[in-house]
């Protein structure tokens, strides 16, 4: 699992990947490259510049029939998953982690 923007781009070009879990990541360019992606379970903060790209990613994955679970957590900020940071959100982090574990158990 790799959580950054690199993971999405990597998933579009490496068939060895079985699932990815981006957290507050930016999308690859062109976005249509995700048509070749493995399944994606993504977690994004609602109060962040990555929220709109997450919505576009969700729509594009749906259009290309790529299995995915993209969730935007309302009221959270960038780095909500970092338990050492100022914007840590325990409830969102716990939910995101459980989604990742369940998704990976299903796909890996």
From TrEMBL:
InterPro entries: AB_hydrolase_fold (IPR029058), Dienelactn_hydro (IPR002925), Dienelactone_hydrolase-like (IPR051049). Gene3D superfamilies: alpha/beta hydrolase. This is Dienelactone hydrolase domain-containing protein. It comes from the Bacteria. Residues 3-107 form the Dienelactone hydrolase domain.
């Amino acid at each position: 699992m790799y959580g950054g923007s690199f993971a999405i781009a990597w998933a579009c070009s490496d068939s060895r990947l079985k699932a990815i879990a981006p957290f507050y990541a930016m999308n690859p360019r062109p976005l249509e490259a995700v048509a070749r992606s493995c399944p994606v379970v993504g977690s994004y903060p609602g109060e962040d510049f990555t929220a709109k790209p997450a919505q576009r990613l969700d729509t594009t994955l749906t259009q290309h029939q790529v299995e995915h679970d993209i969730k935007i957590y309302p009221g959270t900020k960038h780095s909500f998953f970092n338990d050492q940071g100022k914007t840590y959100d325990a409830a969102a982090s716990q939910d995101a982690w459980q989604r990742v574990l369940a998704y990976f158990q299903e796909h890996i």
